[in-house]
Here is the input.
Amino acid sequence: GPLDRVLHPEDHIYRKPRTHHYNWTISSSVRRPDGVAKLVYLINGHYPGPTIEARAGDKLEINVHNGLAEEGLAMHWHGLHMRGRNAYDGAIGFTQCPIPIGGNFTYKFEIADDQWGTFWYHSHAQTQRADGLYGGLVVHKPAHNGADGRPPKPKYDEERLILVNDLYHRPAADVLAWYMRAVSNSMEPVPDSLLINGVGSYNCSLAMPAYPIDCVQKPVRPGMRFDSQKRYRLRVVNTGSLAGFTMSVPGANMTAVEVDGGNKISPTPAASVGILHPGQRVDLSLSWDESFSRIRTTDLEIALDQDAFFYPNPALDPTQTFPIHLTNLPSAASMGNGSTPSDSVPIVPYFDLSTAKSLHPASPELSPLEPSTTKTMVLYTTTLMLAHQNNVPMGYMNHTSWRSSSSPLISSPRWFWENGTQLVPYIPYSSSSNDFMDIVINNLDDSGHPFHLHGYDFDVLGAWGVDSHSKAWGSYNPFDIHVAPPGGPLNYQNPVRRDTVFVPHHGYAVIRIRPNNPGIWMLHCHLLWHQSAGMAMGLQVGGD
Ligand SMILES: [Cu+2]
Here is the structure.
């Protein structure tokens, strides 16, 4: 089907590490991802960009040529640690200048021997991500030979990549301009459509007269094909700008097994899994319920999380189904012989990803330590409309709203750029596995924020918010020793590890890193409109 993106772990898990060379030319052109004409970015003519597949220990050398007419750009490798390669992280204003029009930049970095999982890359310039400048990046875990000298049998018969995102029919720059006005009252723009692997199917009759679109109705909804006898690994990425989503596949046994970059979680078979927020990934183990396989078709259902929508957009169908055609169905004879399905496991209706726990207990040294060995930083984030900013919504981290300086921070020493208008706390580098930095991110806004930290995975010791319709407050100030975390004790036993954590409305998240990756690393809300409005900062680990 048009949505199938089959991955090829067999080309990577049995071989030695090597260097991959890519030459990418970025251009733009009008396409119809969901039937509606839209100017989108292309990488070597592809929308979305090509999928990168590699193994841990591989080197990537990606020469990016900016073939755009009017904009600079930069590419970020979301979730990769970029150890020793801070300068290739793609964060404009922090690590590099935009690649100028007609210019080139070659990203060179090694994927660590111990890093594998589902990643993605995307532009970190302006709002290009929302108009298609992104793609999948899958790092396969190398297979080691078993006792018999042969590689183990793969756990999955097939792997698929599923990039899901909300879509705006207008150019993202126009959408941002709409948001950055006093009259938006800081209500985020609600998307018009949704895509899987760059393909959707818009119901042209939903278009609103106020926003005329050039829409060609697709005669059938795009779908997928699955083999009813195969066990699949689905690598799901939210490549969107605003909306989280929940997904379900009636008739499938679906189990979330990893989140973000290869972090294993306790498996809970479920009928639906969510909410996956922009920037986050989840790997699902999927097999077909045998009793269901008499039926030839089912659907992948994507339901956008409407908690992020503060006004109605009649142009959007927020819950969409994509047909799945099942092949290789068992014959009636083989089904009637009374065999017990091997996958008959109890299934819960819904697995809430925010409750995910690490499959492996944290190593003992993660236990609460003497205060002197754990440093703590407290952040407050909010969106403010201030008179001196013409009441335009601006994202703040503590008292700063990020504005990129003309030269990237890493190009000059700290004294040169440190002037109180940029929030880039300094954290001493430590190679000790017992030195931690705990970061409390308090969210004072009515909407949640998925925060992404570059260069690191972190342990989520706690994340909590008040009920989504409540006006109550749920901040956590760890320096007030009389007040416990409102969401209950922090989890030092089996905290989930991630690189993008959802900080709920009027709530907080407590994340813990080992500050062992030197560099200046961006920490920002991954909702594109908030990030663009300044909800961003940096962490400087080590250096001068
Ligand atoms: Cu946000």
In short: The chain has four helices and 31 strands.
